[in-house]
Amino acid sequence: MTTSTPGAPTDRLLSPSTSMDAVTLRVGDLEQMTSYYTGAFALAPLEERSRGTEVHRVLGRGTTPMLRLVHTPGLPAVDRRQAGLFHTAFLFDDAASLAATVYRAAQDRRGAFVGSSDHLVSEAFYFTDPEGNGVELYTDRPRETWVRERGQIVMATEYLDPNAYLRTHLDQETFDAGPALAGRVGHVHLQVGDIATARDFYVDAVGFEATVTEYSGALFASAGGYHHHVAMNVWNSAGAGPRAASLGLGDVAVTVPGRDDLDALVARLRARGLQHADDGRSVVVHDPWGTRVTLAVPGTTTDELLAR
Q1: Counted domains in the chain
Q2: What is the extent of the structural domain holding 249?
Q3: Tens of pLDDT along 30-45?
Q4: Residues in domain VOC (predicted)?
């Protein structure tokens, strides 16, 4: 008889301890986008590096990278009808931290506030940055309050009054703390051409577990019973083919606990004939629409992130 170690990967699934890492965006105006993300979302520049004609700049909170901006002027703008990014979702520890960031972002007219929702498992606010990339700011409700039916996590999109939320949760001390407050990438929501193909890749090959499959035009998946680390939808992009070079999403980064997780991933990719690169600490693979996905072991430094 064999026993499994808690948090260990299986041949089929990513480890329950899997988490998301910094998202990479290709941007046309590095200074404007840096100014926007630092001003609107209280991220701080952590490090930067030039690579040929490109400049790579990492932003985050504390020592946690949350976003890498890659200056690639000359590329066409984000096309919301194509595969790519729906939004990057920044997760905050509590309602006060979320409210402080939402209030800050709402004052910055370079982006746009596009809505707020109660998803039952979380409370979320949505923005669009100056180059058309979606951003979600959210906090989770306690996991013990999440409802599961028919093997799926129950999620919904219900009205959340943004002004009432701010009146209830915003306080000056938290607002003034700014970048000192914890934040991280909680999930990434993608636009894809069709859901069945997305499931074949993100669930069957990469190893996320489907958590919500009955939401119209979308699929949600995670590791370890989270509501979702990745989501895929066809709301704007049904039938989209491979991505052309453009501004917008450059890389989706996932952190797995150890090399065993990468070995199991590589086995799944090889079994499906999917090309990938493995440098020992990370595995890079592209989804069916050309979106780059990097899975890496913990301890990625800003130097390593900049080198990708």
Answers
A1: 1
A2: 19-307
A3: 999 999 999 999 999 9
A4: 19-140, 184-308
